Structure to design on (678 residues):
DNA sequence: ATCGCTTTCTTAATCGATTAAGTACATTAT
DNA sequence: ATAATGTACTTAATCGATTAAGAAAGCGAT
């Protein structure tokens, strides 16, 4: 391994000079700096990240936290897109990505300890149980964090526009003539609370009365769970004409159930998803859904986290909301009639 | 930050003693060791990974390489499952995961340099262009590597059973009475070569003559590309009765195309995918496909890599093949008749 | 000639942990 | 009584990089 010592010997200068030259310090002459840079390149020098991290207390490494328990693991298209965009933005800014988890081999540690152990400069909390004390500890620590789809006090967060998204979906469905709209929502997280409140408010604004049995709880990203709720809806004496699902993946579970009842989409039942993952637009019929801008959220999360890391003095916590867009798709039938 | 120095002061021993006690060295008395461990716990001591990595030349960190250019990025369900299982197995064994990419901020480096810079103990090469000189450099370096679905000489690799998988699919489709079988395959990687060879061999063994225009090239995981090839197949004077797709996701592109022609699955056209991602079994009809055991591949990759890292002396390169299984699904129509 | 001021470099300490080599003391063997 | 052995520590160097503080040399001004 080539170190600055090798370069210093080759150039006949001290190690300090090499370090300064490579970091562009002011008190090194142009010629010396050039000679050192060229020698470094010729020898194939690479800085040692561990040594640097030790000395600087900065690792140029940010943690990403996905707690799989919440059903929002890496394998879900929505989250993997976020991961990918966090990764590429972080890399663009010179940071690597490490996963933060509970426990590492024999060592048992919580998220905060794991992040400290790896001296992460900051952590993106992408999907987690925000009630978990271990998450709260991390988000209250001195380690900079950015949360996605949840806000801690005095912390930066990137939020998707759940209120507007839900409103857009309801208004769209309403504009197609639907009045009996069912809403299968996810478990009661802050995201669900926003969507649910927005659903109710928008329905009220449109003068719709939604019977309580039209509002049902399922589990996010779990087709089986939403399938069961779909079955329950179909068993009602007065069926809805349209079902809103917690997310695109959950819709697939509903789809199976509708098939089983011999109901076609959108002929016999209209449906809409949420998330707007690429898959939703590959399917036929294309799913009517609301696209959450995962790429943008990931990018913003990485950007703001690194901004906070690099300019701690001028930094102030921000809550950024990223706008999505309605993807009309073909799964909401036009019932005609204006009212 | 609590360091061994703090513990040594609190316990009235030298730093060396603390280090040895915490690492279970033999020349520390039981009582002292116990006292040190307790003090460490009380003070909330955490080892500093950077200091350790610097001194030991071991980081307990393994790199994972996904080059997105190949279309096998993190967002694809098959690869994200692999990533997830590599991650959890590595964590179980006490290793963290860092993504390895080309270029990091202003520093331009190749994969090998990146891995060295972070002093990764090893790298799992999960999806990459294996002809890329940068990949070859990494896989020829002193850094332990494990490749997925490709074998480098004298290196460990985890292979899925492409030959058997393809054979199983063809035999299954044949058993349902299909004789005019088209095969849309991915771009010409080593995986494609194996599948293609197996396809041809199995067809020959079954006495099937496949016209060359039934064998077409698309791009892996690209629904649009396979949609185009599907269209080309449908334009043939003598259409196939069954289309095999490069992967499950590509099938979706074909599906859209079939819909556009008013063809139903499997009534008017039989199809099969490859990969067996969870999505394929949520769809209705359930996709006939061959499940690659991504979880197992990831787990084995991590396990073998770490074995190689920790026991370099007894280590020998291995090529492990992980068996998948046929998922019959409902997209291959039974044409009846035995011959 | 001397002082002050730059410019350009070096010295030496430091980050936190590990470990070979050394020391002090007690115990056992001869 | 002396040597040999073992136990339980400490000392000090080391990993590779950074940086405050110091030093040497050059230059102009007085």
């Amino acid at each position: 391994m080539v170190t600055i010592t090798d370069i210093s010997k080759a150039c006949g200068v001290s190690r300090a000079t090499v370090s300064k030259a490579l970091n562009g310090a002011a008190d090194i002459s142009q010629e010396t700096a050039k000679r050192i840079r060229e020698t470094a390149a010729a020898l194939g020098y690479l800085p040692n990240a561990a040594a640097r991290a030790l000395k600087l207390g900065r690792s140029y490494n940010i943690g990403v936290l996905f707690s799989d328990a919440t059903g929002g693991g890496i394998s879900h298209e929505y989250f993997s897109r976020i991961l990918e965009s966090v990764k590429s933005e972080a890399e663009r800014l010179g940071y690597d990505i490490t996963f933060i988890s509970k426990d590492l081999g024999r060592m048992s540690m919580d998220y905060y300890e794991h992040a400290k152990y790896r001296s992460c400069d900051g952590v993106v909390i992408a999907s987690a149980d925000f009630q978990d004390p271990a998450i709260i500890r991390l988000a209250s620590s001195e380690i900079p964090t950015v949360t996605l789809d949840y806000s801690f006090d005095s912390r930066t967060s990137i939020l998707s526009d759940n209120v507007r998204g839900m409103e857009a979906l309801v208004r769209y469905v309403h504009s197609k003539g639907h009045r009996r709209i069912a809403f299968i929502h996810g478990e009661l997280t802050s995201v669900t609370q926003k969507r649910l409140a927005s659903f109710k408010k928008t329905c009220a604004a449109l003068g719709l009365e939604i019977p309580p049995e039209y509002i049902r709880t399922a589990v996010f990203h779990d087709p089986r769970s939403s399938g069961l709720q779909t079955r329950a809806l179909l068993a009602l004496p007065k069926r809805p004409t349209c079902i809103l699902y917690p997310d695109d993946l959950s819709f697939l579970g509903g789809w199976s159930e509708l098939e089983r009842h011999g109901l076609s989409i959108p002929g016999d039942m209209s449906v809409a998803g949420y998330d707007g993952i690429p898959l939703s637009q590959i399917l036929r019929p294309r799913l009517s859904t609301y696209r959450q801008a995962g790429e943008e959220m990931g990018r913003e999360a990485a950007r703001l986290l690194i901004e906070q890391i690099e300019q701690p003095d001028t930094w102030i916590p921000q809550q950024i909301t990223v706008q999505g867009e309605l993807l009309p798709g073909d799964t909401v039938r036009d019932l005609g009639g204006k009212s």
Summary: Residues 34 and 124 of chain A are 38 Å apart (CA to CA). The radius of gyration of chain A is 26 Å.
